[in-house]
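Sequence only, no structure available. Ideas?
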Amino acid sequence: MNEQINVSKLTPGMSFAGDLLVRSIEKRVGKTGRAYLDLMLGDKTGDINGKIWDPDSVPGTPVAGGAVTVEGTVESFNGRNQMRINRIRPASNPDLRLLIPASPEPAPVMLAQIDAVTDSFRSGSLRALVREMLNMTGESLSYYPAAQRMHHAEHGGLLHHMTSMLRMGEKLCEVYEYLDRDLLMAGIILHDLAKTVELKSDRFGNVSDYTADGILVGHLVRGAVMLQQAAEKVGADEEMTLLLQHMMLSHHGVPEYGSPRLPMTPEAEALHWIDTLDAKMNEMQAIQERTPVGVFSERIAYLDDRRMYHPNWRGDLQVPEDPQEPAAEETPSAPDASENGLLPY
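Reply:
I predicted one. Tokens follow.
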């Protein structure tokens, strides 16, 4: 098989033949009453929705998390790419390195960064509480993504999100020195740990669906419950635990995005904006990487249905200019203030 095209480079009218990962699959019924299969397929560069209009022609139903060999044609539907699948079968020898998006750093490196921050906390009660929460999360933290789609949807994406936020948190505390640095950094580490309960992920970081707990409770509330359990186990300070629970519950900012409380402390407000900024910057980076220079992307639902532009111009790539400055003209000196009785400002 020839080298296949990356999903991020697919455009309407192109034909595709190659191996892809099945991120999700669902049997649906169309307006005419006929059944079809709706799939989300992807490689390490992005995802594309696929349709199989004649499920009976498929030799064995694909499964979420499995690799398949696909032949199809790319179409445009509602401004987004979609693949009409002509043939599909289980992949015989897929190269998973090309199919699975992964964080830029290995899990052990990112876990070490989190350990170093936790060790730096001045409060023994805070250190014990954070460590207990990390222990409750367990090995899954090393491979879990931060989301099913959108930002940091990759192997190790949750760690990637956390460590990026920790770097931002350190810088923010240098600007706003009144922030409780340890409380903010602990909130960053804890805020999304319950996503390991909310999402169904395999060890490749591929999320097939939300769990029942994720749908009925969600990671904000589940995280606050887990924190209470951890606090009782280690005998953590009550007000400190309450402040962290508030940060976890309010970090989505507004009720429309799932937060039952608005941020009511500086650290909670900071956590909300650090989380929002890191998520959006990660998504925008992925969009730019798959969008040609000088071109607008498709509409992005997660970014309020905006189309993102990939500029031609970059200031950090420009050759520094060295214009010849004109010689300064001599100007008469101002009279001394003491001579005319004026006081200089």
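The mean pLDDT is 88.
Hope that gets you unstuck.
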